[in-house]
Amino acid sequence: VKNDSRGGYAFYAQAMGSEFSQHMDLEMDLRRALSKEEFAVYYQPQFDTTNRRIVGIEALLRWQHPERGMLYPDSFIPLAEEIDLISRITLWVLDATTAQMRQWMDAGIAPPRLAVNLSALDLKHTTIVDETIQTLQRHGVPGNRLELEITETLIAQDITRATHHLTALSHHGINIAIDDFGTGYSSLNYLHRLPIHTLKIDRSFVRDIAPERNERSVIDAIIVMAHGFNLKVIAEGVETEAQRDWLEQRNCHTMQGYLFSRPLPVQDIEELLRASQAD
Ligand code: C2E
Ligand code: CA
Ligand code: CA
Ligand code: CA
């Protein structure tokens, strides 16, 4: 019994230790990733299904880890937030994507809008507004070409500060989208108080679409509300034709998802952009 429990403890300590040191490794790797240029941006198009044109492109971060291969944001963004590295990463993404946007504008293949995700922590920093404006100016990209995607949690946490920052950003023409709409702490009362341009219907609602049933759903409510507040609405995570058709019937015509395209590396998205300009 004694042995067992010691063995059990040793095993436990070892497991904890390795988890702990893995976390430490990842933390050190993450601190170096920016300077080592291990981050890359993938781009996923948003389509207007009435004319099949690209109306926007969302930037999605990838980390090409030297040993672990490609890592997705859900596996390192929370850590980046914890160790206070997120705002530097956000600025890197903003810089890389607006530089890219400028190149596309010069080549005559730019999408109308570029969407960039902000972390909940970004709006806590007082410098985010100035840094965003400066980045746009540095690359000569007008504010109305940028859409910032934020979540409701962020707004709910500090509505006064959020209002202040978002208003300043929108004075520069920058569009604000509410990401994962309907999943967080929704408060109808911020919708008309804040300068919001777009609601993104969360993937979980799209996944639950059951075309054979005709009952009203959360999505119906979101679409009606968006139109009532004069907001654009984008459905994300559209994977099937049935989902697309159902959304179209409900008057939602802007969509993003694997049915249309996965997030693509820059060369591949450029091919799509050229084709989109060509028709
Ligand atoms: P999100 O903003 O809700 O992005 C949508 C996620 O759904 C992306 O995952 C995308 O690749 C995936 N997706 C797109 N279409 C489909 C589909 O049809 N089916 C399915 N099953 N999935 C689809 P990804 O790229 O792994 O990003 C995950 C999350 O990480 C994002 O969720 C966003 O919150 C965050 N993120 C991504 N890039 C950045 C960034 O640059 N900065 C910050 N702060 N967060 C980021
Ligand atoms: Ca997003
Ligand atoms: Ca989303
Ligand atoms: Ca999400």
From TrEMBL:
Q: Which residues form the EAL domain?
A: 23-277
Identify this protein by name. cyclic-guanylate-specific phosphodiesterase
